[in-house]
Task: structure prediction
Amino acid sequence: MYREIQVYDFLPVLLEQLKFSESILDIGSGTGTLLERYEAALVIGLDIHRPYLLHRKYKAPHIIPLHADAGHIDKLFLPGTFSAVTLIDSLEHFTMAEGMELLRKAEIIASNRVVVFTPRGFFPQEGTDHFHLQGENYQRHRSGWVIRLRCLKGFIMPRIRPSGKRSGQTTSRWMLYSPAKQSSLRTREGGERMNLQSKVSVVIPFYNCPYVHLAVESVLAQTYPDIELIVVDDGSTLHTEKLTPFMDKIVYIRKTNGGTASALNRGIQAASGAYFAWLSADDLFHPDKIERQMITLTQTGTSFNHTAYYYINEHGERVSEVVRVLLTGRTEMIETMMKGCPVNGSSVLLNMDIFRKVGLFNERFLYTQDYDLWLRILPHYEWSYIGEPLLDYRVHKEMGSVIHNEAQFREIEVVQARHNGVLAKLLRKERGQ
Result:
């Protein structure tokens, strides 16, 4: 669950973790030299040493100094008050017991994450007054932290003091830690590596769909906190006004008409998340869809997940029982995928690294680009499945699969002919033949 990675500049790493935070509490802010770099609408710099706050380096009105004891933050703030809580070069100034209790309280008042930057391991610091403001006692190091630390919502970035250098000098090695948001990528070949990012990029391809605003709202209502929503307008001439209220909450890309696959690929290329989800403009996510899928990926060690769903009509009314894929194992999944595609594209969540392995959607397929991609993924990656419905799949007379039904069947035959040789070989391997 832990990984050290190489970075060469601390600040971009920090700012990346805070990029979507609307409010930040910075504990042990000192004079606050970093606070104006935070992009949040509200920043509170808390410090127990009043002279630091009186000589603060920031002047922006959205950054508020607070003279208080960090140990009392649970009494000062309600649970989930801030998007993020940061402890930058401050955790080591508490004893281990105090620090663990402080982290516990920070996790409660942070709705999204806790970010910590601290020396890796203990090294002494006594009698230091970095700011010449009689803060020697507050600069003393009282604890050392290692990657065994468990912080439920956080990133831990230990600063490493290498041998042969004076304390205070640092290397360019950092460890990022976020067990609540990590998942591992495991391939069929047995390789495994940790993906430390957690952002999910949801791509909505949009072409003249009157339901697009409802799809957008269903993404914005997700319980998972770290989502980037990209709407790719594939040359629409109708219903574009339905996106106007959301322009400050989405990434909007307009392109000439090229089909669903081209719109999805454009969104993937623009995405900054570590995970990808596709939502058709006429479908709806259930509020906990992304959160449930991220948990499942983490628990199963898989990198591709899909879910059960409901059919709904043009009025948003459910017109079916739960639609499930009732398969007993990987062998049955391969057999089923050779005959047809039971995977609803809008139900899928996958690790972006998959695209680097198998490529993007094939833009030559206008109606079966999803089926083709799933068949390319299947030989290389384990899949997981959630049998509870987390999607509403809209059926209406204007949907592409109704209008282009015959062309879709012809494409299915082409896709199957393209992949069945590889899948037949995979099936024999799974059966031990």
